[in-house]
Design brief:
The longest helix is centred in the C-terminal third of the chain and has 21 residues. Helix 2 packs across helix 11, helix 7 packs antiparallel against helix 8 and helix 9 packs across helix 11. By secondary structure, the chain is an alpha+beta fold. The strands form 3 sheets. Strands 1, 2, 3, 4, 5, 6, 14, 15 and 16 form a 9-stranded mixed sheet that branches. Strands 7, 9, 10, 12 and 13 form a 5-stranded antiparallel sheet that branches. The structure holds (2S)-amino(hydroxy)ethanoic acid (HGY) and manganese (II) ion (2 copies). The site of one manganese (II) ion (MN) has 5 residues, from loops. The site of (2S)-amino(hydroxy)ethanoic acid has 6 residues, from loops.
Length: 397
């Protein structure tokens, strides 16, 4: 709740866009807490924060855990932050019990997980995992054309550490489910077995600026009316791939943005997801075809740029097993679950055995200021995280 005061919104949520002043304040507070827990803090070239707790065998690859501090524009108080603070709570608990681990532990904050300010999402973890080059990451621009590099400099988080290249024995991320299943079915813990695939596109519709009063309907090349038809066609494609497909147009800009000028240019975003790679690809083909037909029928130009593609992820059986064992040892009801939301763990899974621990959130609501979770469920997730980490950090010298 102290962290939630940074970027707090009037409606009770949080607004801490990546690399904003609010993100800097959250990072500064987190690093203070890490230092109070005797952790050695390092920051890499894209602002990822690594806080290390030594083990008996410093030469062993560390066991990692963490998540993100950046939020959606109207974000909640738990998405990402829970996983960051659960990791810190595990360290504090080990310190309080003077428990030594064989392997070092490393708790992590990944830069720009949400993708709300800079696209693509999961940028810090993706660069760490080698999915993006450092140059690609540093040259991403927000809507004001500010680069990631400039934003990192402005908040003092352009770290000196190389991004990537150090291994994890295993990596875990605790997170609220951001969906209704655990709460609806009465489970405290979700052993996440994987994450659905995701495609992000930017679409640009080109028509002709013209006078709203003196241009007949037949003579128009109205980019916004055309985009409206495309958006309902996108929704139809998702419904055609029910029950798992989802597609969202979250942001749209019509230019020149005057009431009495027919919009000649529209740009909008597309976020589409499916657990099955082939279905996700089929959805993309169908959406491209539908939008091209609408553009042709209306004499409009159409541009579709891919911004992000994350294939469906399957987490390491050894990590899923640690989560299951931890929950069963502690007597928490648990079920296996696929994540609808994307997470930094998606990229970590490409470079280390990775697992996730879900806890319920009220009504499954997230990316909403009313997002909430109970202290009991959050504590349960922390306890399972502790056991899962110890399972992998006990280590064999
Ligand atoms: O979009 C997502 O799934 C995540 O919240 N960034
Ligand atoms: Mn998240
Ligand atoms: Mn999120």
């Amino acid at each position: 709740m102290e962290m939630a005061r940074i970027g707090a919104t009037a409606a009770g949520g949080c607004r801490r866009l990546a690399l904003s002043d609010e993100d800097r304040a959250a990072r500064d507070l987190y690093i203070d807490w890490c230092r109070s827990a005797d952790l050695a803090v390092r920051i890499d070239h894209v602002g990822n924060i690594f806080a290390r707790r030594e083990g008996r065998s410093p030469s062993l690859d560390p066991v990692g855990c963490g998540s993100h501090l950046d939020t959606q524009p109207h974000g909640g108080r738990f998405d990402g932050v829970y996983g960051v603070l659960a990791a810190l709570e595990v360290v504090r608990t080990l310190n309080a019990h003077a428990t030594e681990t064989e392997a070092p532990l490393e708790i992590v904050v990944w830069t720009n997980e949400e993708g709300a300010r800079f696209a693509p999402s999961m940028l810090g973890s993706g660069t760490f995992a080698g999915v993006h080059t450092l140059d690609f990451a540093l040259t991403r621009r927000d809507r004001e054309a500010i680069t990631v590099a400039a934003a990192l400099e402005s908040i003092g988080y352009a770290g000196r550490e190389p991004c990537g290249g150090h291994r994890y024995r295993a990596f875990f991320e605790a997170h609220i489910e951001q969906g209704p299943i655990l709460e609806r079915e009465g489970f405290t813990i979700g052993a996440v077995t994987g994450v659905q695939g995701l495609d992000w596109y930017d679409l640009r519709v080109g028509g002709e600026d013209a006078h709203a009063g003196s241009t007949s309907m037949a003579a128009r090349h109205d980019a916004l009316a055309g985009a409206a038809r495309m958006i309902t066609a996108i929704e139809d494609v998702a419904r055609d791939h029910a029950p798992h497909a989802v597609a969202t147009v979250g942001d749209i800009h019509a230019l020149p943005g005057s009431r009495n000028t027919i919009p000649g240019t529209v740009e909008f975003t597309l976020d589409m997801r499916h657990p099955d790679a082939q279905a996700l690809s089929d959805m993309g083909d169908a959406i491209r075809a539908e939008c091209a037909t609408i553009a042709r029928q209306r004499g409009l130009e159409l541009g579709i740029d891919s911004v992000e593609h994350t294939a469906p992820v399957v987490f390491a059986a050894s990590c899923v097993a640690s989560v299951r064992t931890g929950a069963e040892t502690l007597g928490y009801p648990l079920r296996e679950i696929i994540s609808g939301a994307g997470h930094d763990a998606c990229h970590l899974a490409g470079v280390a055995p990775t697992g996730m621990i879900f806890v319920p959130c009220a009504g499954g609501l997230s990316h909403n200021e009313a997002e909430s979770a109970t202290p009991a469920d959050l504590a349960a997730g922390c306890n399972v995280l502790l056991h899962a980490l110890l399972d992998h950090a006990a280590g064999t010298p």
